[in-house]
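TA notes. Do not distribute before section.
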Amino acid sequence: MANPINNISNLNPSIVSNGTPNEAKTKDIGKDAFLKLLVAQLKNQDPLDPQDQGEFAVDLAQFSQVEQLTEINKKLAEGAAGGGGAGLASYLGHEVVLKDQSVQVAGSDAGMLQVNPSTALSSLKVELMDANGNITGSKTFSNLAAGRQLVDLDQIGAPSGSYGFKITGTTTNGTPLTVDGKVAGIVSGFIPGPEQTLLVGSKEISMDDIAEVHLAK
């Protein structure tokens, strides 16, 4: 079994990835530095004009996200050393991106794709294609915001099997846009044991199949 995910991109609160350290943005800071800045801000605030409680709550929420992903990293390492279900449980409720870039259809269930349009879309169309490039099913989504999000391919209309996919979108001003996608889903359960497995939708996913872990939106 491959090593579990073992790095957090400079503790960016939105993603744990198997990518290289060079992918981390320089504007991100570590959790210790974040906590020191937060404490310094509280010490030096004007007592007659204290920090807005709403902004403070947002700061604490961001720190909580960082701590949550750090704990995932810790528990996954313990799981690799025999911690078993403790590491698997850390995935529950999180969004995972899979290494497999084929959509697996089983009955009406085709799983999910992660898309990340650079601008808002009036529509987005996902088409599944067989090995010969023939379109076997499609599904259209309306009014998507810009940024990372999941789209559910339930009832896409393709027979059970493995398919490639093509994603096209139309911006709010009518401009066509090609959109990249990744096979993804939300972890709903796990099966401990020698072959540790996560439940993503109706599918059992090996730990080796995971490329990224995100906080679910």
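Switch to the second chain here.
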Amino acid sequence: MKTRRWFVGVDWATEEHAVCLIDNGGKVLGERVFAHTGTGIAEMCTWLLETTGAEPSALFVAIEVPHGAVVETLLERGMVVHSINPKQLDRFRDRFTVAGAKDDRRDAHVLADSLRTDAKCFRVLRVDDAKVIELREWSRMADDLQHERVRLSNRVRQQLLRYYPQMLELADDVASDSFLALWELIPTPAAAARVREKKVVVLLVEKRIRRFDAKHVLTTLRQKPLTVAPGTTEAATAHIASVAERLRLLNRQIKDAHRRLDQLTNELAADEEEAPGQKREQHRCSDRGLDPGRISVGGVTA
């Protein structure tokens, strides 16, 4: 703390951010609100540097959200950014007030002052590799898509139980493209009674369904159907048809996400394999009295 430093609290929000700047002794030097735009975030950085007159590395920033445009801009400008768990911040907030009402300006002050006095409770953030950032986002996307797929598949299952439960006996995954194609060919008990076995054979071959043959499919679907109220079958089939379109899109998006995740994982693994060789080259340069920081890698001076 003997070194002159400034502490900044940023209360992140979707539209604007409250910012509080304090010095080593906890004195508030300024409080402002900046819009969540490229211009607004740039103005925030300029204001902090002009107000302190310090080098970016002397500004220690506290924020709850550990990622995003604000964090990345602050890191890119050379400031030292820290994040904290919201539950921990709640405990620090009690130092200033016992009121439970949300106050953005006060939270920004709490963040700055808590970093000044209890830096050990914060986590220092660093800029991730571009591929790591993309990998993390694709992973989140894949999870979201999978959750949506489960939700829609449950709807298909519920509708089939209303009028056509025998179809579920053939289902390994009601959201799969192959099951949806089978349902479209034979969407009702009445259709099962009319469909030709040859059409079922063609579909099973086309969709590579080998768990059962056409005879088993027809035997299963031609079981005595449920007795349902007029309009039930029409309503349920319309519902499933609507959901099926979304499921097909989700299936494609999930495949694309997994393909991209595999690609990024392989690229990162390849980068890690190359890294030891680059380190050895730097050691050789050091032994020769050369500056390893000026090595040209792939035409770019590192």
